[in-house]
Structures are given as structure tokens and as C-alpha cells.
Amino acid sequence: xxxxPVDVTDKVAMEDLxxxxxxxxxxxxxxxILSAGICEYVHVDNLDPTxxxxxMQTNFQGAVLSTRAALPLLRQSAASASRPxxxxxxxxxxxxxxxxxxxxxxxxxxxxxxxxxxxxxxLAPGISVCTIYxxxxxxxxxxxxxxxxxxxLSAEQAAHRILSALEKRPRRIVLPWxxxxxxxxxxxxxxxxxxxxxxxxxxxxxxxx
Length: 209
Fold this sequence. Notes:
The chain is α/β, with parallel strands linked by helices. It has helices at residues 11-15, 49-80, 103-123, 155-166, 177-188, 190-207; strands at residues 31-34, 85-90, 127-134, 137-138, 153-154, 172-175. It has one domain: NAD(P)-binding Rossmann-like Domain (Rossmann fold), CATH 3.40.50.720. It has six helices and six strands. The strands form two sheets. It has a four-stranded parallel sheet with strand order 1-2-3-6, sandwiched between helices. The chain has a two-stranded parallel sheet with strand order 4-5. It is globular and about 55 Å long.
């Protein structure tokens, strides 16, 4: 493993990423997982455009720049390997339905999901594109949350499930399945989600210590 620190929002740095001495020997990439992401919660009384820009720059534009950097090496793998190379990125189940204060985060992940769906059309069959939809994962990012996070997985559990699933080159990975099922039902029944569940979640957050 060769650590290669880089700011995924820095266009110049990302253009030069695979020309750096540490990885200049690479001739191909069999797979890439894009997981850089940030979350900042929105105060609806002050829709701070700078906050939206920060979140979109990392979660969406960072994935675009990372894909651009990796594609030449992924194509080299696709041309010589016996099975497709894989390009995977971490979206979020927050794209299924609206959540309070998640306007910036959810929008950035929705943009990422569409970007990947569209890439899948143009990169097949040599490069398999996979969208990863996690629920709550125990990471420093989720430590800031001040609301209940049901069915949370550890980072180790999530990583193991993702890597195992990627061996099959799926179009998407969802974890955990129970959260996926719950939010899929919420999307199918928006009246219950927005009329009953969301007001309750909002009240719980306001009275939390």
C-alpha cells in the first residue's frame, strides 16, 4: 500500500496525481473506490452558498476529478484483464428521501449517483461502475450527528461487505439491507415519511441533550 495524500478538490493536484514519483510506475488500475466526502448541516434560515460550495466541491466535483485522473489507468486494465475493471463510489441512502438539514449533503450525493449512472452507460463493458449506498457508518463524520442513527455499522463491517460485494462487479451495493428496505418504503409512501416520520425526527432532535 502506498499512501498518496491529495486534496481531491484541487484540479491541478488531481491532474498530476498519477505522475507523482510514488506511483509513476503504475501501468494500470484494476479498481478504484471513491470515498472522500464531507457533511455540513444547513440552517434553513441561512442557506449559506459557501457551505453548499464546500460540500459539492468535495462530494461531487472531487469524484469527477478523481474519475478523470483514474480513467486512463482503468482503461489500460480493461484492455488487458480477463474481467472488467471497477470504478466504485460511495453515495448515500440520504438520496432516497429528504432529511432535515441535509440539503447540501443529500444534493451532492444525488448528483454523484446520477454521474455514476451516466458513466455506466459510456464505460461498459470494459469498466464496471458501482454505486455504493450506505446507511449510517461509525466514522468521525457521523460523530457530529445529534439524532438517532439506527442500524449503524462499524467502518470495518462496511469495508468488508463492500469489498466482498465488489468482487461480483454489481451495479450497486446497499448496506445494511434493513435500512435500504425502510427508506425504499418511505420513498414509496411519501405522505407517511414527510407527514409523520420527519416531524417526529425533528422533534426528537430538538429535545436531545
